């Protein structure tokens, strides 16, 4: 058995050299995930890309040729593919410069420190002269921009949020806005060695800690928590949180001393709560009318929070919505009003249950990494604005206090990602993908993004290449020797880019004369050298490579976030403009953005169950993350396909909503709104609140040829809106949308995403 690492966990495998013959959970993982079952079953699926391909119309007519998304592909040799691509890169860089190349290439790619696809691509493009990049993520785009104004850099905090073991030992009440999802806590960028999704909750519960989950789905928190379930209308958490704050303020339950010594701006916020400016007191009765949560329960919950050691945690899902800054900011404000920030088991958290790394003991060492070099140009977009950029080059836009302009992109280069999974309003994205002259994709599978590319290059899976890996804040560095030969003619991204670099005259700069094996050895040795005394007990590379992994040191005792700041805010100020927690931000207020003022407020979303649009579309779609795969990765794997209904992604409805529509378990139904429609298989489940339709993302986009807004497979992003969270963050809002559901009575169409696109032979290059 050989151990390997994925984003969803470590596993042991046996291989015959061609395929994995056995896959078992790594014995050191106390809570392994069944997602590892997707790996072996997907490796040689018919949708694996077996060799280079070029879109036929692009090959016949050159850059800018129409027909993306429905064209046939021509199988070509590696030499011809690389000649075509190097020639096109040379043309675009020569005629238009690096500002015409979008190389953001967003996506999780694969586990592994060296073969991280985006890092490889960015290094390659930097050697050519640079590229237009992206900033932020679809997962955390809103919080990444907001929280530096409020408490400090989010990515510095992600590995420092209070350890789950501390919560288990000290917390008396957990109020989880958005829940603590066990399925999301099974994954982590780079990998998870030991899952700890249940043990800390079980320990806390046995000690008497209470859990309150505030979410539209009961199973957004594990059953073992025995949580009280409060289900506000989706998108109204802000109103509920404001009312909790109003009770704390009105009933004298705030920690005034903490507010005075550790925060700024409370008086501005308090005037808003009290209705001084607008005449509306944000009390429980006001919030009950908006959220549907009874006023008395809001009032008693506020008192319970003030009477206990309380952790206020906000999931990442809440900031993936219009005005997503507001509930995230309010989570900090509520914790500050309680005065428990910096105490063991109290205060604020962001992302417990959103990723396996949150709340793990802080890893105290850096990791080996491939240098990407410097990007000579400073042009970027917020990642979720890609369709805006492609559809409206030259258009000005505002972001994070800056006035910017979208570049005119001629070539898009994507490796290790699938924007037709992450992005919203896929019919609009498809129109946007018609605009560039050339789109290049490296992928292992014929995803929707690959099917919209002009040049498609087959990339290896992690099990087909040598690497080493660990996850964000994970405590083991694993060697990851290749387990099988590559599928077909697939190559590592590094080898592809190395050959391209040679053709373009940047080979020496890109490779530095090293093969993959030489890079792995060099980066490991450089890492040990940089660590100095801290790495003196680690093995040399040969012993590491033949071993079972290195245990990396973590914080001892486990961390309590903001403990130093609480103890002495002058000696340990926060990296905010004031050095304190900013309940009111002068900086944000100074930007004058009407959709994100200087303190948290209730801003009515365009699509929620209290809006006029709900008369036509009376169900709130919750497009959350799937439980049988990571995003859309390995959607063709056995575990992912095991829950599909007649090959459609499952959608969950409350029994009362199913009865109202005369639909039943196992039926194929149609979800629709003004943006698009999709098919799904119905699951009737009382874990979903009335008024909610829950359809996870991750089904590979399979558009009807006559109507790209209709997905036959069940991708909810044909329904979600491509609108920013706010002018401040320009973040993704893919979590919520309004829809209607009806029985689907026609013949269920065949899927095309389970087979390759049409392939034609090119006799000149085969």
Describe this structure in words.
With 766 residues, the chain is α/β, with parallel strands linked by helices. The chain has 3 domains: 48-137 and 367-551, Rossmann fold; 161-361 and 562-591, 3-Layer(aba) Sandwich (Dimethylsulfoxide Reductase, domain 2); 612-743, Beta Barrel (Barwin-like endoglucanases), CATH 2.40.40.20. The protein is 28% helix and 17% strand. The protein is built from 25 helices and 32 strands. It has a 7-stranded mixed β-sheet. A 6-stranded mixed barrel has the order 24-28-25-27-26-31. A 5-stranded parallel β-sheet has the order 10-9-8-12-13, with helices on one face. Helix 14 links the parallel strand 12 and strand 13. The protein starts with a strand and ends in a 5-residue tail after the last strand.
């Amino acid at each position: 058995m050989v151990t390997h690492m994925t984003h969803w966990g470590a596993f042991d495998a046996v291989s015959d050299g061609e395929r994995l013959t056995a896959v078992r959970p790594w014995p050191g993982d106390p809570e392994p995930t069944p997602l590892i079952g997707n790996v072996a079953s997907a490796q040689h699926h018919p949708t694996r890309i077996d060799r280079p391909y070029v879109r036929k119309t692009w090959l016949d007519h050159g850059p800018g040729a129409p027909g993306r998304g429905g064209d046939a592909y021509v199988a070509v040799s590696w030499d011809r593919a690389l000649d075509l691509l190097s020639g096109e890169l040379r043309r675009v860089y020569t005629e238009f410069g690096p500002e015409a190349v979008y190389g953001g290439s967003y996506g999780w790619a694969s586990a592994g420190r060296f073969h991280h696809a985006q890092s490889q691509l960015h290094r390659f493009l930097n050697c050519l002269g640079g590229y237009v990049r992206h900033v932020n993520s679809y997962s955390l785009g809103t919080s990444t921009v907001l929280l530096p104004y409020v408490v400090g850099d989010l990515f510095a905090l992600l590995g420092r949020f209070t350890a789950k073991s501390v919560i288990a030992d000290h917390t008396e009440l957990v109020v989880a806005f958005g829940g603590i999802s066990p399925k999301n806590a099974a994954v982590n960028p780079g990998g998870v060695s030991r899952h700890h999704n249940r043990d800390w909750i079980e320990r806390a519960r046995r000690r008497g800690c209470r859990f309150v989950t505030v979410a539209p789905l009961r199973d957004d928190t594990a059953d073992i928590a025995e949580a009280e379930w409060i289900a506000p209308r989706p998108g109204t958490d802000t109103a509920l949180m404001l009312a909790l704050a109003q009770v704390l303020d009105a009933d004298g339950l705030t920690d005034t001393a903490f507010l005075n010594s550790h925060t700024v701006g409370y008086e501005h916020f308090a005037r808003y709560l009290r209705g001084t400016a607008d005449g509306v007191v944000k009390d429980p009765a006001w919030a009950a009318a908006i959220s549907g949560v009874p006023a008395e329960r809001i009032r008693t919950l506020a008192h319970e929070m003030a009477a206990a050691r309380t952790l206020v945690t906000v999931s990442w899902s809440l900031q993936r919505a219009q005005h997503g800054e507001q509930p995230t900011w309010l989570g900090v404000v509520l914790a500050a009003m309680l005065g428990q920030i910096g105490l063991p088991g109290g205060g604020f958290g962001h992302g417990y249950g959103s990723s396996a790394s949150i709340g793990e003991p802080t890893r105290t060492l850096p990791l080996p990494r491939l240098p990407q070099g410097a990007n000579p140009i400073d042009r970027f977009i917020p990642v979720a604005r890609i369709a805006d950029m492609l559809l409206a080059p030259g258009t000005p836009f505002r972001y994070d206090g800056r006035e910017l302009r979208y570049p005119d992109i001629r070539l898009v280069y994507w490796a290790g990602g699938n924007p037709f999974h992450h992005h919203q309003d896929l019919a609009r994205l498809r129109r946007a993908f018609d605009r560039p002259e050339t789109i290049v994709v490296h992928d292992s599978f014929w995803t929707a993004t690959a099917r919209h590319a002009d040049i498609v290059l087959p990339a290896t899976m992690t099990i087909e290449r040598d690497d080493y890996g660990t996850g964000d804040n994970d405590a083991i560095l694993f060697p990851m020797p290749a387990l099988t030969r590559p599928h077909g003619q697939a190559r590592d991204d590094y080898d592809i880019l190395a050959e391209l670099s040679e053709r373009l005259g940047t080979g020496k700069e890109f490779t530095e004369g090293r093969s993959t094996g030489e890079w792995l050895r060099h980066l490991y040795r450089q890492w040990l050298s940089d660590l100095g005394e801290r790495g003196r007990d680690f093995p040399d590379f040969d012993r590491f490579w033949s071993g079972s992994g290195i245990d990396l040191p973590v914080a001892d005792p486990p961390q309590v976030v903001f403990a130093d700041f609480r103890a002495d805010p002058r000696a340990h100020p926060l990296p905010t403009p004031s050095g304190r927690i900013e309940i009111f931000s002068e900086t944000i207020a100074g930007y004058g953005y009407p959709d994100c003022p200087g303190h948290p407020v209730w801003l009515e979303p365009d699509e929620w169950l209290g809006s006029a649009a709900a008369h036509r579309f009376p169900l709130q779609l919750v497009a959350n993350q799937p439980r049988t795969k990571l995003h859309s990765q390995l959607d063709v794997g056995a575990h992912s396909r095991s829950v599909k209904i007649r090959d459609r992604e499952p959608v969950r409805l409350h029994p009362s909503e199913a009865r109202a529509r005369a639909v039943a378990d196992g039926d194929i139904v149609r979800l629709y709104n003004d943006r698009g429609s999709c098919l799904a298989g119905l699951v009737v489940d009382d874990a979903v609140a009335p008024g909610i339709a829950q359809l996870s993302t991750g089904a590979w986009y399979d558009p009807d040829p006559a109507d790209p807004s209709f997905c036959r497979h069940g991708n909810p992003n044909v329904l979600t809106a491509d609108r920013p969270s706010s002018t401040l963050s320009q973040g993704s809002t893919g979590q919520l949308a309004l829809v209607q559901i009806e029985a689907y009575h026609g013949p269920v169409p065949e899927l095309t995403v389970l087979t390759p696109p049409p392939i034609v032979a090119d006799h000149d290059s085969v």
